[in-house]
Automatic annotation (TrEMBL):
It is found in: Cell outer membrane. The keyword Nucleotidyltransferase does not apply. Belongs to the outer membrane factor (OMF) (TC 1.B.17) family. Pfam families: OEP. The keyword Transit peptide does not apply. Keywords: Cell outer membrane, Membrane, Signal, Transmembrane, Transmembrane beta strand, Transport. This is TolC family protein. InterPro entries: OMP_efflux, TolC-like. Residues 1-21 form the signal peptide.
């Protein structure tokens, strides 16, 4: 009878959701791969990395010279009145003069007190920092996406459990009708069974709606078509071994992305101090130019018209040393040192917070695993109780109300098990994120 009952349940579930069985499975690997390519936050983070990469280029370092070109033309027309002593005045009209010039100028800083060198190294560190910031964004996004993914998985399994429960209730209605027809039960038993079917149907409809909504949430995170709900997810959950997890915790200080970022900020602050100190040293610059000039002058009363053309090279060195700049450099150095001290304080605080967060997350994870084991035992107990109650109900030894209670207990136990399973997995993911291993393990 149990085998026959199971076959009936399979047929009922299959008929109730034929489209679900044909839906493609969206695996965890596919979700993560698409997130890395299409998620809006990750795409923005990658653009920030690209900007930082451009900034740390040699083209933004100040090591390359600047080359500029200048050209110009001037034209003027004047009236001139000349009054020489003892002679008649000479009045000239519309005297034209034209001048042309062109030059190429080279400027290069040979030495600037090493400020350029430290700034270039600082830009390199800022690029590394931007990569760590992008990694943090990716980790947070993956954790968010997997939370939604596992919620889809949980709701999918809950829908399956509710479908089976609805099938059981529908069988009860059929059995109650037969009992009523043969005078073995009154009409109240049939009505109670129908009420339970209605309740189970409502619960199933609500669960299916939550599932559709959560699938839309996942589609938004993956930049997929919002209405694309015809997919299933992988409900398999695997946990990392305790030994491997402990090794991750031991190396957390070397891999936690927040701690790595503060180390980069310390290095950048150290370079800021050195850049400020470069203001005490002189600046040596090199200049060079090639120029061309042409001047066309009209004839005057005393000089004939002429055209003059000149061209040539020029080069020079310039030295500038701010012996005293009003204390500006000294103030900059003091402030840079204070900012460095602030970064050290933040580092100490961050180390304590990360240690606390890892301890909390690890304790929460182990607690969730314990709850998962208890819930598995609870399901086994309730399954055994349900099977016994089903046999007793068929033999007429217990009422439909008692059988319904066994059915509800089993339903609650199975949905609680689903919740415990995915809660434990999400707790594990939080530990992996804090230890810097979220992107290095198979989820």
């Amino acid at each position: 009878m149990k085998v026959l009952h199971s076959l009936i349940l399979v047929l009922i579930v299959g008929c109730f959701s034929p489209a679900l069985a044909q839906q493609p499975v969206l695996t965890k690997e596919e979700v993560i791969a698409r997130a890395l390519e299409e998620n809006f936050g990750i795409r923005l983070a990658r653009n920030d990395v690209e900007i930082a990469e451009n900034n740390q280029s040699i083209l933004n370092s100040g090591y390359l010279p600047s080359l500029s070109g200048n050209a110009g033309a001037n034209y003027d027309i004047n009236d001139r009145l000349t009054e020489p002593d003892g002679r008649e005045p000479v009045d000239q009209r519309d005297i034209e003069n034209t001048r042309y010039n062109a030059s190429i100028n080279l400027d290069y800083t040979l030495f600037d007190g090493l400020g350029r060198l430290y700034n270039y190294r600082s830009l390199k560190e800022q690029y590394d920092l931007s990569q760590l910031q992008a990694r943090e964004t990716i980790e947070n996004t993956i954790l968010q996406i997997m939370s939604v993914y596992y919620e889809v998985a949980r709701l999918s399994e809950n829908v399956g459990v509710l479908e089976e429960s609805l099938g059981i209730s529908q069988n009860r209605v059929t059995r109650a009708k037969y009992q009523f027809q043969y005078g073995q039960a009154n009409n109240l038993v049939v009505l109670n069974a129908r009420v339970d079917v209605n309740n189970d149907s409502i619960a199933l409809i609500e669960a299916e709606q939550r599932l559709r909504n959560t699938k839309r949430d996942l589609n938004v995170l993956l930049n997929r078509e919002i209405s694309s709900n015809e997919f299933k997810v992988d409900t398999t959950v695997n946990f990392i071994s305790e030994l491997e997890l402990e090794s991750f915790v031991d190396q957390a200080e070397l891999n936690n992305v927040s701690l790595l970022q503060i180390e980069k900020n310390l290095e950048i602050s150290d370079y800021d101090i050195r850049i400020s100190k470069s203001g005490y040293l002189p600046t040596l610059g090199l200049t060079g130019s090639y120029g061309w000039n042409r001047n066309e002058s009209a004839a005057t009363a005393f000089f004939p018209g002429s055209t003059t053309t000149t061209d040539g090279l020029a080069a020079g060195l310039s030295l500038r040393w701010d012996i005293f700049d009003g204390g500006r450099t000294s103030v900059q150095i003091k402030n840079s040192k204070i900012r460095y001290q602030n970064q050290e304080i933040i580092k100490d605080q961050l180390i304590s917070e990360v240690e606390r967060d890892i301890a909390n997350a690890l304790g929460n994870y182990r607690n969730k695993l314990y709850i998962l084991n208890v819930q598995q035992e609870n399901v086994e107990t309730n399954m055994d109780n349900f099977n016994r109650s089903e046999e007793q109900y068929k033999l007429g030894r217990i009422t439909s109300i008692e059988f319904r209670q066994a059915q509800i207990n089993l339903l609650d136990a199975r949905t609680s098990l689903n919740l415990a399973k995915y809660d434990a997995k999400l707790a594990e993911l939080q530990v992996l994120q804090l230890t810097g291993q979220l992107l290095n393990v198979e989820l």
